[in-house]
Amino acid sequence: MSDNDSTEGPARQDKAGHKRRTRPLYKALAAASALVLGGGGVVIADQVASAGQSPARSAPVTATIDCPDVGERLREVPDQARGEVDRELATLDTQIAEAYQRLATGRAPADALLGELKDRRSTSIGRVSEAIGRTAARPDGLAELSACAMQEAPAADAEPARAGAPKGGPGRADFVPIGSVKPNVRRPAAKPGGSKGSLAVECGRNEERHLNPDNVIVAPGVSNGAHHMHDYVGNKTTDAFSTNNSLAASGTTCSNGDLSTYYWPVLRLRDGKAEQDAGAPGGGQDANVGTILRPKQVSIEFKGSPVSRVTAMPRFLRIITGDAKAFTNGPANANASWSCTGFENRQLKDKYPICPKGTDVVRTFNFQSCWDGKNTDSANHRTHVAFAGRNGSCPAGFKAVPQLVQRIVYATPPGARFAVDSFPEQLHKPVTDHGDFINVMPDELMAKAVRCVNGGRTCR
Questions:
Q1: Which of 66, 187, 301, 389 is most buried when burial is the number of CB atoms within 10 A of its CB?
Q2: Containing H/E element for 200?
């Protein structure tokens, strides 16, 4: 495992869909006298003095919409129902995005908006249950997931925004100097029988500007299924309408013929400048604004297990690492790792790094390295893969596969504000960072990866 690979970060497996969810009281929000649109949230301009403070002295807050994640609760979806279920889950995301926009622009009182949203979600959730119920047992407990609440967060900035910069978005509290972070990366000790080799894949930095707001894993067949823009390298044709066959027939930006698709949310400067997507879905329409940063460097590497040999990934295996909704879902599936060059033994999960002069911002994605040996995907896109434990071993019933490690480097201007694209209600929080991967390696290339990893060789 690499120096960037922390075993301390995410919960190693999701908790059967059950998360501890903190729901603050929102009587104060319903009484707020004004809502001001901020690029990253809704600023409550006049708080009631519920804590004994006068409104003038109350700290402003950013409000967002917190809805239970229906997709996380699904464990079995029959193949016959998968298309309809995926479309309804994408519809639930659109409903939240639309409700957030209405809240942000003050077009509806919060309590009325939440009531309308609950009704719309109830209809979509009912369709999910009905689709599954035609060929299998209906999932329990979905109906109770229709109600949403408001969630508070500190306001983006206490100081006035710079001239021309978008309102809202990440503020001082979302950034921390990397030098103030203690080294926190821990690696399990290598044991006899471990696999110490690696295979590096060179796929470029998305010089082709392959960008779209789709997510073919979570929302296949749905345009703007992510509600944020993705950077792609590898497979040249990946979008919402890709199939296994179309991916296998595509070209690639990878130098070794790897047809896999690798994608992640773009990083933007919060500079007030209009990108080409300023008025488009996934961009300005979904509160993702500013100049899209092209990576300075993208490294893709497949590594071994410290305690065992690895087996081949199946072709078309899908893996999502991290949680795009971690701000409202909680950190159980979060796997963000932010750092700076020269400081990568210090990784941040819920903060953006302030990097010293002469260093660059680094995002690292350490993907799940354990596979259930049967499935290329699962109903919630998580339970067919798992993270290794603290000692490097896979959970019972899982086998080690080559671990995908992606490292993405950005040159950012000194003191610049930046933010990762996100679902609008997730407020561009760093904890929502995530990466997506579909294995479309030709079988002979995957076999080479396994030989290199198990043989302790460094291959390209």
A1: 66
A2: strand 198-201
Smallest CA-to-CA distance from 44 within 148, 152, 160 is with 152
User: Rounded to an integer, what distance in angstroms lies between the CA atom of residue 144 and that of residue 445?
Assistant: 46
Q: Report the C-alpha gap between 418 and 429 in whole angstroms.
A: 11
Can you give the pLDDT at residue 52? 34
pLDDT (tens digit per residue) in 364-411: 999 999 999 999 999 999 999 999 999 999 999 999 999 999 999 999
Cα separation, 201 vs 6, in Å, equals 22
Residues 6+ apart with CB under 8 A from 59: 47, 154, 155, 158
Q: Which two structure tokens, joined as six digits, stand for 323?
A: 């949680």
Other CB atoms closer than 10 Å to residue 111's CB: what's the count? 12
CA-closest candidate to residue 124, choices 152, 98, 150: 98
Q: Which helix (H) or strand (E) holds 405?
A: strand 403-410
Rounded Cα gap, residues 248 and 442, in angstroms: 9
User: Can you give the pTM of this predicted structure?
Assistant: 0.87
Give 396: exposed, middle or buried? Use CB within 10 Å, 0-12, 13-18, 19+: exposed
Contact 417, 269 (CB under 8 A): yes
In 209-296, which ranges are E strands?
Answer: 211-212, 230-234, 261-265, 267-269, 291-293
SS3 399: strand
Cα gap 394→306, rounded to integer Å: 11
CA distances (Å), 29 to each of 41, 173, 179, in order?
A: 14, 22, 37
Q: What are phi and psi of 130, to 5 degrees?
A: -65, -45
The tens digit of pLDDT for each residue in 27-80 reads: 222 223 233 334 445 554 332 223 333 333 334 557 899 999 999 999 999 999
How many Å separate Cα 42 from the centre of its chain? Answer: 22
- Residue count (the chain): 460
Q: Give the pair of three-digit tokens for residue 55.
A: 């409104």
**CA-CA distance, 40 to 29, in Å (whole number)?**
17
Instruction: Note the pLDDT tens digit of each residue in 255-295.
Output: 999 999 999 999 999 999 999 999 999 999 999 999 999 99
Instruction: Output the CA–CA distances (angstroms, integers) from residue 306 to 199, 392, 401, in the order listed.
Output: 16, 6, 12
Q: Are 222 and 87 in contact (CB under 8 A)?
A: yes
